[in-house]
Amino acid sequence: MIVRRVPDVPSPVLAEAYELLRRRGHDVEATIAEDEVRLLDRMDPEHDLYVLKSHTELSLGLAGLLHGQGAEILNPYPACATTQNKILAARILRDAGVPTPRTWVVGNPAAMAGELRRGSLIVKPYMGHRGAGVSIVDDLEGLAAALAEGEGPMLVQEHIPGPGEDLKVYVVGEQVFAVRKPFSETSFAVPGRPVRVDAEVRELALRAGRALGLGLFGLDVIESPSGPVVVDANYFPGYKGVPDAGTLIGEYIDQHARRLERRGLAAAA
């Protein structure tokens, strides 16, 4: 279940994963929810395994419908829905001991005056992705404007100082990779520079994955003076800049599919 790309060209990472899966004997079908017409009361699971790559509200809604009908989804639908909801994800990560910014939901901007005196704040949509709608504010007027411009609930987070680049951490099962690149609204489309993953970041990433229930996921990490801080989490990101990402993802999906097959055979026996 993929998203329409802009420009509309195939993802080389996914193309590599599809090729590996087909060589392993799997039938692979890629669908874009926004291109289809489905009668909901006839929408039942048709495949052994669904892989949710798209982050659109329509795709997430259809994945929820399939989950309710008993479909196997990778990553699991409840984990994807939780991760997409930044209100839930922020609290889950903090409860799991993952370093994250202090986060507020704000109805009255004036109540944040004390926090603004301590430094800048980040405003972001609670269901956003790809950095859309994220802004940095330095005063009450800017905060009020950012909250008013948001299409739906917005989160406010403390601004974590860093080196000027994000550390993008990508996880496939127990394998952890990282790239560095400057943040911008279009940085999701640009490969980063692969860098070594140190033990602290690896442990942090795996802890976050366990807390959120994800196996294919990414984290946006700020390397602050006091250590790495997770500022965002995404299920099944683009893995741009990760060497052999398509092969790694294809292997992970293949292993998951074969576990399902063995489980089905055992149940039948």
* Number of distinct beta strands: 11
SSE succession: HEHEHHEHEEHEEEEHEEH
- Specify the helix fraction band: 25-40%
Q: Which outline best applies?
A: globular
Structural class, from helix and strand content? Answer: alpha+beta
Radius of gyration: 19 Å
Q: What portion of residues belong to β-strands?
A: 15-25%
Description:
The chain is an alpha+beta fold and 269 residues long. The chain folds into 3 domains: 12-83 and 245-268, no CATH class; 103-158, Dna Ligase, domain 1 (2-Layer Sandwich), CATH 3.30.1490.20; 162-235, D-amino Acid Aminotransferase, Chain A, domain 1 (2-Layer Sandwich). Helices cover 36% and strands 20% of the residues. It is built from 8 helices and 11 strands. The chain has a 5-stranded antiparallel sheet with strand order 9-8-7-10-11. It has a 4-stranded antiparallel sheet with strand order 3-6-4-5, sandwiched between helices. It has a two-stranded parallel ribbon with strand order 1-2. The longest helix is centred in the last third of the chain and has 24 residues, at 245-268. It is globular, with a radius of gyration of 19 Å.
